[in-house]
Amino acid sequence: MSDPRLQRLEDLAADRALVGLSSAEELELERLLVETDSTLDGELEEVAALLDRALVPAHVPMPPALAARLSASAAHLPKKATLRPVPRSAPARTGLPAWSGWLAAAAAAVVALFLWFGGSDVLEPARLRETLLAGTDTLQRAWSEPGAPTGATGDVVWSQDRQSGVMRIVGLAANDPTLEQYQLWIFDETQQHPVDGGVFDVVAGEVLIPIDAKLPVAKPTLFAITREKPGGVVVSDQQRIVLVAPI
Predict the structure, then answer these.
(1) pLDDT in tens, 130-181
(2) Cα(48)–Cα(17) distance, rounded to whole angstroms?
(3) Are 65 and 156 within one domain?
């Protein structure tokens, strides 16, 4: 890259995505964008966000084989990331940054981390359920109705190792999201209050709902579904339980 301004522009773009810029650096970046007739397309910010999410401490250790593969891939990355602007079609402006080798490697690492560390929510609920059922640690429990029977059935599938699960619900009354929503609660022997498992809506027939546990679950003893106000509640009075699944 012959123009030193473009090199500086790339450095500033990478710094902004990864660590942020000072006010003076932001002004310098804007000036260089004008001087070099360049644009930022946001790809670096997207990858930085994915890396930030993927690298949040997990509740299970990374498998040694996966760690070795990621380390081997990182060894082939350049010491300093180089982003090369590429010309756009029309109008003729330089797009910055474009995907380069190190960026593609980072994205591949993110995908690998997502698949192991709580990233199973990227799967469709039906596929996720099948994947969990194939695991040796997975619990599967049928729903039952604590009150007057309505005919609602289904089951809950939960992987303790993955901290991930899917609810299958059949025949539960459809809700009006503007008036009320269903909310899952996971009773944990180590927690004073049930763990919020996410708010969801039900339509007629069968629905598959991924579980969105807001806290790590150590020793689950019961899954329960309640009717709550739109958006759910922080602590339920448990007076409106519609389905339960004891462990």
Answers:
(1) 999 999 999 999 999 998 888 999 999 999 999 999 999 999 999 999 999 9
(2) 6
(3) no
- Contact predicate 232/244, CB 8 Å: no
Please give the Cα distance from 60 to 219 (Å, whole number). Answer: 15
Distance CA 84, CA 43 (A): 13
Structural domain including 217 reads 125-246
Into how many domains does the chain fold?
2
Query: Mapping DSSP to helix (H, G, I), strand (E, B) and coil, where does residue 164 land?
Result: strand
Same domain, 48 and 144: no
Q: For residue 74, is pLDDT > 60?
A: no
CB 138 within 8 A of CB 132: yes
Instruction: Single out the residue in 117, 149, 178 at which a domain terminates.
Output: 117
Say if residue 135 is in the same domain as residue 218: yes
Query: Which residues lie below 8 Å from residue 23, measured CB to CB, with a gap of 6+?
Result: none
For residue 193, which of 224, 163, 171, 165 has the smallest C-alpha distance? 224
What beta strand segments (E) does 84-201 contain?
86-87, 94-96, 138-142, 153-159, 164-170, 181-188, 195-200
Rounded Cα gap, residues 227 and 183, in angstroms = 6
Cα–Cα distance between 226 and 183 in angstroms, integer?
5
How many whole angstroms separate alpha carbon 218 and alpha carbon 173? 31
